[in-house]
Write a structure and sequence with these properties.
12-stranded antiparallel barrel; 322 residues; 2 domains; Porin; mainly beta; 22 strands
């Protein structure tokens, strides 16, 4: 029999055999040299199939008979009527089967929860315990992200106190593989700093240069409304131009670097620039557990009295991912 299907992986490996199917993020490939192999779909760059399969794309209601072709680094999806679409990664394919599936799950739910011990320098020097996490609910064209963190500080008298919390929600609607519109909101509270709370809400237009299992680069530009409450200066409200950048890159097989930040320019305020975000590395210990080192930063070009422009936090933690 002929083994004409080919699978290209992100690390450069090439597998040949017969594609049995793709379900729940796992590709089954029947080979003459190793029997049936299971491959995590996140590590697949491209696929070529010799015969049509029942292929369901993320966001579709039902599967269709399609073929997969590879052209350079791109995946080409060919419908039954000959219509071709080209993608820079294999992520649009949600499932594959040799017979028409009865039930199809079009949405992907994933996330992580981290527990961290944190060392902070800047306006304060202290140690905290932190719990943070995020959840994603995505299909091909719609992406939702809920992100949060809560800090707990131990006082001298042994009292545990939750004094910092932050919550953020993002929704992105993709119109093509690269272009999308984004709406986001964020609220941060600190019980002891001069800046008690800051809330932002805005709309952005974004461009995704690339997003695979090994790297990603997304940025967006738009307008945000900023509400701030200060202990000494009172309440302030400003319109701002915002630029958001997200980057992720696999450095080694189990080591990943990430960068996630937002830069804002207050249009009608002397306190013009805000830049906050985080970057760090994540080491994958098992399929679900990781060790994380993250530096968080918060820059304000015109801080309050007796406060520094740059406030940084360094945290070490164990994360659970699904």
């Amino acid at each position: 029999m002929g083994w004409a299907d080919t699978v290209w992986l992100e690390n450069g490996d090439v597998l040949s055999g017969e594609v049995v199917g793709l379900d729940a993020g796992v590709l089954k490939l029947k080979t003459v040299y190793a029997g049936e192999l299971s491959v995590n779909w996140r590590h697949v760059r491209s696929v070529k199939t010799d015969n049509p399969l029942w292929i369901n794309l993320i966001g579709e209601d039902r599967a269709q008979l399609r073929e997969l072709h590879s052209s350079g680094d791109d995946l080409v999806i060919v419908d039954e009527d000959g219509y071709e679409r080209r993608f820079s990664a294999a992520w649009p394919v949600a499932s594959m089967a040799q017979s028409e599936p009865v039930f199809e799950d079009n949405w992907e739910f994933k996330g992580n929860v981290d527990l961290n011990l944190e060392s902070k320098s800047g306006n304060d020097i202290e140690s905290r315990y932190r719990m943070n996490g995020q959840m994603h609910l995505n299909d091909q064209w719609n992406k939702n992200r809920l992100k949060w963190h809560v800090d707990v500080e131990r006082k001298d008298e042994g009292i545990w106190k939750k004094n910092i919390w932050e919550i953020e929600y993002d929704y992105s609607r993709y119109f093509t593989e690269h272009w999308f519109a984004n709406a986001s909101s964020k609220k941060r509270y600190h019980s002891r700093e001069n800046l008690r709370s800051r809330a932002t809400a805005g709309g952005f237009v974004g461009y995704r240069a690339r997003e695979t299992s090994s790297d990603a680069l997304l940025n967006s530009l738009g307008l945000s409304q900023i509400w701030e409450s200060y202990d000494r200066e009172g309440r302030q409200q400003n319109l701002a131009v915002g630029w958001k950048l997200f980057h992720r890159r696999q450095l080694l097989s189990d080591l990943e670097y990430f960068f996630d930040s937002g830069l804002y320019y207050r249009i009608q305020s002397q306190k013009q620039w805000i830049w906050d975000g985080e970057h760090g590395v994540r080491y994958k210990m098992t399929d679900n557990l990781s060790f994380n080192v993250t530096q968080m930063f918060d820059f304000d070009s015109q801080p309050g009295e007796d406060e520094k422009k740059l406030d940084t936090q360094l945290k070490f933690g164990i994360g659970y991912n699904w």
